[in-house]
Design goal:
By secondary structure, this protein is mostly beta strands. The chain contains two helices and 13 strands, in the order αββββββαβββββββ. Strands 1, 2, 5, 6, 7, 8, 9, 10, 11, 12 and 13 form an eleven-stranded mixed sheet that branches. Strands 3-4 form a two-stranded antiparallel ribbon. The N and C termini lie far apart (65 Å).
């Protein structure tokens, strides 16, 4: 009977994953002006606890050509765009920087019953929800600005900050 239930419902579970349903381990994602595909950052958990050496699982979720299809990052994408570096480790937390945005430190940590990624947004400590990257017109490899969106830890209010690229 258990086998029958697994056989009947497992395809539905896979279908939900393929459609890009948000993972309970999802910390934040990056949206881009180039297309609707997402770069997703999930907590990398081992037996329910954060792997502090490699705290993130990073991957693409296709929203256009093959909606819901998931791909890992290429080596070039990890090194130059969407990867991260672990700066320091705690017992159940890690401080990281994003490869393409090393100016701000993010902290992956447990708050209450879930893992979150905190960052400073507009001078306040917030739980990061997403980054939006606006490419410069005519050059999708150059960034015009980045928008950070999150939730203020103290007040619960939504915070937003636009960071313009200083390169002209």
């Amino acid at each position: 009977m258990k086998y029958l239930i697994v056989c009947l419902f497992f395809p539905l579970f896979l279908s939900a994953q393929e459609k890009g349903v948000t993972s309970e381990k999802r910390l934040f994602h990056i949206e881009r002006s180039k297309n609707r595909n997402l770069v997703c950052y999930d907590a990398n958990l081992v037996e329910g606890k954060l792997d502090t050496k490699k705290p993130l699982d990073v991957y693409w979720v296709n929203q256009e050509d093959n909606p819901g299809h998931v791909n890992g990052l290429s080596g070039i994408e990890k090194r130059f765009a969407y990867g991260y570096k672990t700066v320091s480790q705690g017992e159940d937390s890690s401080r990281i920087t994003l490869t393409a945005y090393p100016g701000r430190v993010l902290t992956v940590q447990r708050i209450e019953d879930r893992y979150v990624c905190t960052i400073e947004i507009d001078g306040q400590t917030a739980i990061l929800e997403k980054l939006y990257v606006k490419a410069k017109p005519g050059n999708s490899l150059s960034v015009e600005y980045v928008e950070l969106t999150g939730v203020d830890i103290a007040s619960g209010e939504t915070l937003f900050e636009r960071v313009n690229n200083k390169e002209k």
